């Protein structure tokens, strides 16, 4: 029964996405919805895209274990990242008419930086897609006799069908529907939770005192800083999030929509936090044993919901997954098409670019499924995606803020940051690797900019000296040339 309802729900989303994306005739229609979004669509799509499966499952379990310290990443840090998009990025980037953030980096730092940034965006978005496919396959496996690999293959096929038909226009329309379903389902679960407690006041009184702390005992300052900075930096330069502002119908709409999206994300994100704070004390009241880690919220919902209403919780999870995974696949498709295929065939027609974008979506989905099959935890996949995307923060921020920047600074910063993150984090597992990565990126960017400006001053000075020498010789040269012409002119008889 549950599996049939899941399939029915996904099929309805596919039909809705196909209807919304039926008018796509070019890559711009497919990737930025023809730049036609209003502020409400931008806000709801930003919220629904960023409020993914881990926003429900991982956040509630981390708050249940660690108190408010488990809520630093979500909703607070991610909400700050969306707010940064609204304040510093949305208006400027939308004014440039870009399709991807790699387009902006090409305009500021040249094609080499664009290609490297496109690779970073593709890797980050593929990892994010893998996290959502992992969660989707887990739900299908739990509701059916299929094992995880078969469920993952089915989930990937469903998501690809849904994304291919709709593009960003279909994504935005379904984001709005899915966002409403998520909010409604969480409000119902929150009402039942507080009702089981006997009201809000008894629920608050049931929380242990140490759960209200925003820090963990014996937590180092580097770990604390990384927990805040990775999601903030990863969000504000994310192609998935920025695509919504790039699709707005004007720069001001992009800014207003992103501001509203940050507010919605923070307010709705506090609901899973309440599950983690007030849910654990219900175990003895309900006479049940709540699951640990990522099983906490499903077990709480199962204990509170009647069996026929449990599908509401499943619908909330599916909405969170579907509203995020298609956005990530479209991000990969965008950079692969605009920064890759367009270089191979710069004269390609809009229809050809549209086919290339859809082909890139299929490839991204298959690769994401392979990553999801590796078995890494949901939160680890999400943090990996954020850390990868954050290597673009330095060149993007400096590109927006600086003037007279050379072409090599952005490229050098990305290369060094990828190397530092790869060695210190992925190879050695050193705490604070992300902070070292950002520091190295800033240092290299500053050094490369200084070196380029110094070289430019030297070239200009040398050119000035040559012009000065040429100016002193020019009159003599002109006199000599005139004398030679007069000497060779035939005399009058």
Automatic annotation (TrEMBL):
UniProt keyword Transport, yes or no: yes
- Keyword Membrane belongs to the record: yes
Say which domain of life the source belongs to.
Bacteria
Q: Which residues cross the membrane?
A: 36-56, 76-95, 115-136, 148-170, 176-194, 258-278, 308-335, 356-375, 381-402, 409-428, 434-451
Region (Disordered) residue ranges read 466-493
| Membrane topology designation | Multi-pass membrane protein
Major place of localization?
membrane
UniProt keyword list:
Membrane, Transmembrane, Transmembrane helix, Transport
Q: What would be an example GO MF term here?
A: transmembrane transporter activity
Q: Where does this one sit in the cell?
A: Membrane
One GO location term (cellular component): plasma membrane
Pfam families annotated for this entry? Answer: SSF
| Family of the protein in this entry | Belongs to the sodium:solute symporter (SSF) (TC 2.A.21) family.
PANTHER family noted in UniProt: SODIUM-SOLUTE SYMPORTER-RELATED, SODIUM/PROLINE SYMPORTER-RELATED
Q: Could you identify this protein by its name?
A: Na+/solute symporter
């Amino acid at each position: 029964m549950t599996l049939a309802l899941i399939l029915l729900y996904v099929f309805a989303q596919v039909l809705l996405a196909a209807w919304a994306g039926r008018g796509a005739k070019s890559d711009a229609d497919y990737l930025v919805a023809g730049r036609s979004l209003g502020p409400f669509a931008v806000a709801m799509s930003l919220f629904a895209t960023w409020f993914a499966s881990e926003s429900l499952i991982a956040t509630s379990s981390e708050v249940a274990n660690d108190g408010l310290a488990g809520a630093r990443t979500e909703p607070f840090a991610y909400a700050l990242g969306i707010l940064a998009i609204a304040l510093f990025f949305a208006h400027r980037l939308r004014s440039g008419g870009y399709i991807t953030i790699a387009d902006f980096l090409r305009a500021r730092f040249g094609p080499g930086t664009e290609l490297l940034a496109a690779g970073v965006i593709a890797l980050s978005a593929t990892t994010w897609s893998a996290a959502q496919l992992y969660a989707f396959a887990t739900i299908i496996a739990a509701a059916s006799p299929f094992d995880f690999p078969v469920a993952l293959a089915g989930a990937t096929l469903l998501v690809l069908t849904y994304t291919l038909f709709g593009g960003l226009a279909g994504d935005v329309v379904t984001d709005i529907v899915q966002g409403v379903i998520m909010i409604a389902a969480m409000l119902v679960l929150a009402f039942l939770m507080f009702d089981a407690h006997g009201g809000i006041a008894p629920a608050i009184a049931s929380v242990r005192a140490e759960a209200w702390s925003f820090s963990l005992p014996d937590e180092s300052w580097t770990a604390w800083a990384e927990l805040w900075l990775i999601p903030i930096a990863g969000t504000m330069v994310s192609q998935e999030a920025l695509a919504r502002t790039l699709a707005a119908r004007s720069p001001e709409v992009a800014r207003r929509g992103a501001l509203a999206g940050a507010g919605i994300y923070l307010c709705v994100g506090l609901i899973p936090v309440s599950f983690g704070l007030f849910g654990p004390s219900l175990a003895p009241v309900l006479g049940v044993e709540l699951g640990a880690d990522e099983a906490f919220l499903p077990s709480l919902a199962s204990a509170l919901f009647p069996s026929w209403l449990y599908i509401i919780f499943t619908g909330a999870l599916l909405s969170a997954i579907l509203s995020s995974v298609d956005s990530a696949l479209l991000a990969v498709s965008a950079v692969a098409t605009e920064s890759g295929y367009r270089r191979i065939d710069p004269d390609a027609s809009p229809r050809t670019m549209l086919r290339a974008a859809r082909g890139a979506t299929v490839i991204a989905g298959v690769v994401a499924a392979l990553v999801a099959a590796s078995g890494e935890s949901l939160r680890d996949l999400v943090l990996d995606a954020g850390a990868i995307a954050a290597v673009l923060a330095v060149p993007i921020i400096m590109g927006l803020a600086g003037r007279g920047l050379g072409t090599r600074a952005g490229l050098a910063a990305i290369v060094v940051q990828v190397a530092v993150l790869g060695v210190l984090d992925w190879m050695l597992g050193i705490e604070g690797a992300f902070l070292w990565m950002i520091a190295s990126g800033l240092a290299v960017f500053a050094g490369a900019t200084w070196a380029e400006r110094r070289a430019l001053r030297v070239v200009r000075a040398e050119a000035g000296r040559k012009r000065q020498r040429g100016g002193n010789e020019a009159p003599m040269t002109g006199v000599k040339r005139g004398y030679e012409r007069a000497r060779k002119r035939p005399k009058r008889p």
